[in-house]
Here is the input.
Amino acid sequence: MSNTILVFAEQRAGKLKKSAIEAVSEAKRQADKLGGQAFAVVIGNDVQALAESLGQYGAARTFVADNPALANYSSDGYARILAEAVRRAEPAVVLLPASAMGKDLAAGLAGLIKTSVAMDCVEVALADGKLVVKRPVYAGKVTAVCTFRRMPAIVTLRPNVFPAAQPEPARKSETESIPLMFTAADLKSAARELMAVVTKRPELTEAGVIVSGGRGMKGAENFAMLEELADALGAAVGASRAAVDSGWRPHEFQVGQTGKTVSPTLYIACGISGAVQHLAGMSSSKFIVAINKDPDAPIFKAASYGIVGDLFEVVPALAREFKKILQTA
Amino acid sequence: MRVCVCIKRVPDTAANIRIGSDGKTIDPGGVEFVMSPYDEIAIEQALRLKESAGQGEVVVVSLGPSEAAATLRSGLAMGADRAVLLKDPMKYRDPYGVASTLAEELKKMSFDMLLFGKQAVDDDCCQVGSIVAALLGLPFVGIVTKMEVKAGTATVHRQVEGGHEVVEVKLPAAFSCQKGLAEPRLPSLKGIMASKKKPLEERSVATVEPVFEVEKLEYPPRRAPGKIAGQGAEGVAPLLNLLKTEAKIY
Ligand SMILES: Cc1cc2nc3c(=O)[nH]c(=O)nc-3n(C[C@H](O)[C@H](O)[C@H](O)COP(=O)(O)OP(=O)(O)OC[C@H]3O[C@@H](n4cnc5c(N)ncnc54)[C@H](O)[C@@H]3O)c2cc1C
Ligand SMILES: Nc1ncnc2c1ncn2[C@@H]1O[C@H](COP(=O)(O)O)[C@@H](O)[C@H]1O
Here is the structure.
């Protein structure tokens, strides 16, 4: 079996995503165990320097596809480049972050090289030439332990689960360029434009801290209170489906079985009852804080810490105190 | 407009899930099965496309046990014209196995568009649509929240972190549907009655070699029991203390 691990280092606007740093770090750890090397792939426009800098997380070699035509993500185009990197590196495993792009690209690659992806894994282990992964299924109610029978194994990693390595800035990665083997016209689909929502807050799936609101928030305007708490903590703001269905927050901020799966260090649930479908999206958070006026709300069973009380009283007080602490710290 | 929609029978999201005696699959006892919610969105979108075109056909296809016939019937009750059940002799099929089996059957059918759910909410593989599209040589766009079709071209919005991408593709093409695209209709009584008479064809499919196997299912580690920090605003100081000393958040 090959002892190379190939990892897709997702970037946006020349900056590595946090989940990509985690994936590269994990690739290096697995490669070390195999006595092999971690190779990375960077795709985009003006990303050569970024590719070299991946050495700091342990990439020995980085395949770079650097071209203005690659500035926007294309399922088809990016998958073809990644497949070329797979052909050159002949890895045992291909790792990608389980971000929107990482998942889409992993599935695209699987279509091209005719294999399956183990999506959104929380544990990866190589033993006796076999890759064994763990992935939550049935909304996290059970975990599936899966063994690959064919290599390369394609695996996406749940953000915030695999630790990021301490960077060694002096270490540079070797680079190998992958030329564009298609023109824009050859692509079956390409994004014409990216309509970004401008926000200074971290992305929900990558955030270390999330403050979420549910039906108990009583109205869209009251989310300002959660935003204030979130900004004090550098957190993202999420919502329950009840809040989304009421039109208080857009669906992309919904946490749960039919929303996003998040795994932050701290999840603060405000006015959320804790329905199974909500828990499905956030129960792998490291610490959960529940603020709810109903002492019997199921969220308290999932929570590490709770405050029983009116969130309109608790949330502002919490924001005030956090501001004090974090400003003096 | 001829649209083919792939749908999966999954446990109801509120179901209590227990590991079965083989240790590898769930115990279906007492579990209510439904159509995966994103697949309902896909059917709704297909019906709207057909309705606005004023003509066409919506076909629902499912790979699964014979019980998946009921799932297909609920698609027919929403308004789909006919159904195809691919009776699965395997208890578990990995995503490539599902996709290649579906692709093999879809090859024999003709359509302008192929729709999937963004993910099946049982094992959340998030890939069957993309792999089927690749095997059929069709363009694929995933996680679609908006779609406009004009003169054989679909312009869609695809949700990504921090915004959305606008993607244009020529039909035939495949898409996976995300919430927001189309709110699924509830089947009318008339629809339910009519669905019983609509054609539901059963086909047998072959077993395939899996890429990966589920070795076993496990229950996730239990969380340590939580602590109530306090009541109302008075709970704030004790909570901060716990976050500092126990959780070491700051
Ligand atoms: C197929 C399917 C998929 C679903 N997917 C999701 C999903 O992805 N995500 C999701 O979240 N849900 C999902 N749901 C819905 C889920 O079942 C619940 O209905 C939903 O999570 C409830 O949201 P909530 O907790 O905000 O509202 P509620 O259950 O109404 O709870 C509101 C809570 O706020 C508390 N409260 C009210 N006022 C105050 C106050 N002043 N101070 C403090 N607390 C207060 C109440 O005590 C209560 O516990 C799904 C359901 C189905 C059927
Ligand atoms: N057994 C199946 N039969 C029909 N369609 C399926 C099946 N499994 C998955 N799909 C389709 O593929 C989508 C994505 O599923 P998955 O990749 O398993 O998360 C689903 O929403 C369905 O549209």
DSSP finds six helices and 13 strands in chain B. The first helix of chain B runs from residue 37 to 53.
